[in-house]
Design goal:
The protein is 35% helix and 19% strand. By secondary structure, the protein is α/β, with parallel strands linked by helices. The radius of gyration is 18 Å and the shape is globular. β6, α5 and β7 form a beta-alpha-beta unit. The model has no long low-confidence stretch (mean pLDDT 90). The chain is built from 9 helices and 10 strands. It has 2 domains: 42 residues, no CATH class; 220 residues, 2-enoyl-CoA Hydratase, Chain A, domain 1 (Alpha-Beta Complex). Strands 3, 4, 5, 6, 7, 8, 9 and 10 form an 8-stranded mixed β-sheet that branches. It has a two-stranded antiparallel sheet with strand order 1-2.
């Protein structure tokens, strides 16, 4: 029985992490991997988000073969990378390319939490930066689905530098008037949430998503105060103005298309 991941080999039955409901795979798939009893959104793969958000047959991945190095010669890092590539079928934790949503040409990027916790190292940062530059050069709206545990410690300061790098590229995108829709999903934390995931012109998330920088216990120990229940969930973030929209996954594409109809009047290439 699988509790939270909606992709686990040939598993036929899944247990909801929130309410304990046991759900048949086909039922879960037909409901966008959402519990039909309590509405819990299971974590899904990059391929699922591509199918949900982009028009059929329009995805064209770019730079799929860029590989991480090991500048610090970190113990067992090469083995961890090989395991992650074999497990996910991806070269690293971020993929980007061209596509369409609602007929609108876009640049689309998506992170994979199953690849070393969606951690951001130089490869992820470089590919995010390239996706932003592509959106600027081709004047296509940018959409990024972000899920991450933060910077990749195995590449040290080089990983932390990606926060500034991606943020600077997005400043240029905004200067040029090309919209960026950020979609942080459960979980999106630390360096990713503190950089490009929080810089969307519109920020959309899914119900119950965990969003934030440091963990609750770390923050409480630092400020010496008890934090409110659910303060790092999407609904709390929405109430306090840190994100703009919380929408069920089944309405995610519709919501994005509606936003683009307001923000963007570029040509349909």
């Amino acid at each position: 029985m699988v509790e939270s991941s909606a992709r686990s080999g040939e598993t036929l039955w899944f247990r909801c992490s929130r309410c304990g409901e046991i759900i048949y795979r086909k039922t879960l798939e037909s409901n966008f991997y959402i519990c039909n009893r309590c509405g819990y959104h299971f974590r899904i793969t990059p391929e699922d988000y591509i199918r949900i958000i982009l028009d059929d047959g329009t995805w064209e991945e770019i730079d799929a073969d860029i590989l991480a190095l090991d500048p610090l010669k970190f113990p067992k890092y090469q083995e961890k990378l090989k395991e992650a590539r074999a497990k996910t079928g991806h070269a690293d934790a971020f993929a980007y390319g061209r596509g369409r949503t609602g007929g609108v040409p876009v640049v689309f990027g998506v992170m994979d939490f199953n690849f070393i916790g969606g951690s951001m190292g130089p490869v992820v940062g470089e590919k995010v930066a390239r996706s932003v530059r592509l959106a600027r050069n081709e004047r296509r709206p940018l959409i990024i689905v972000a899920t991450s545990g933060g910077a990749r410690m195995q590449e040290g300061i080089l990983s932390l530098m990606q926060m500034a790098k991606t943020s600077a590229e997005l400043a240029l995108l905004r200067r040029d008037g090309v919209p960026f829709i950020s979609v942080p999903v459960d979980p999106c934390t630390a360096g990713v949430m503190a950089s490009f995931a929080s810089l969307g012109d519109v920020i959309i998330s899914e119900p119950g998503a965990l969003l934030g920088f440091a963990g609750q216990r770390v923050i409480e120990d630092t400020i010496g105060q008890k934090l409110p229940e659910g303060f790092q969930r999407a609904e709390f973030m929405l109430k306090h103005g840190l994100i703009d929209i919380v929408t069920p996954r089944r309405r995610l594409k519709e919501t994005i298309v509606n936003i683009l109809s307001v923000l963007w009047h570029g040509e349909r290439l």
